[in-house]
Amino acid sequence: MKRMKQTRKAGFTLVEIMIVVAIIGLLAAIAIPNFVKARATSQQNACINNMRQITAAVNEWALETGQVTGTPVANYQQDLSPYIQLNSNQSIPPCPANGTYTVNGVGNIPQVTCSLSTLPSQPHISP
To answer: What single DSSP character describes residue 113?
Structure first.
C-alpha cells in the first residue's frame, strides 16, 4: 500500500496578501486626513489659548505699571514675563504652528494677533 504524501506548505497566497495590503491602504487613506485636521485644530486651540494668556498679561502689566489705553508694549517678551507662565525655555510660549504674535497695545481690540490669523481654514483668531 502506497501512501500519498500531501505537500502543502503553510503560508499565504499572493492574492491574500494583496487583499490585506489593499485594506490597510484604504484605512490609511481614510485616517490620515483626519489626523492632519485634528493636528491643525489642536494647534489652533493652543495658539488661541496662548493669545488669551498674553492678553491677560498685557492687561495686568498695564494695571500694575499705570499704562493708559493705546500704550504700546515695547518688548512684550521682557515686559510680560512676570505676568505669564513661561515655558521650559523661560520665554512666553510661541505659536505651535510657527506663527508670530504681535501685541497691538493696551486696550486695542484685538490686543494680541497671530500671523496665522489670515489662514482660509483654521485661522488663529482670538474670540
So the answer is: E
pLDDT in tens, 92-111: 999 999 999 999 889 888 88
pLDDT in tens, 25-70: 999 999 999 999 999 999 999 999 999 999 999 999 999 999 999 8
User: Would you call 91 helix, strand, or coil by DSSP?
Assistant: coil
CA atoms lying within 13 Å on the CB side of residue 83: 20
Question: How many other β-carbons are positioned within 10 Å of the β-carbon of residue 3?
Answer: 5
Backbone angles phi, psi at 102, to 5 degrees: -125, 125
Q: Torsion angle, CA of 80/110/107/55, rounded to 10 degrees?
A: -30
Residue where the block lists cell 502506497: 2
Which set of grid coordinates corresponds to residue 33? 486626513
Place of cell 505699571: 65
Contact 67, 103 (CB under 8 A): no
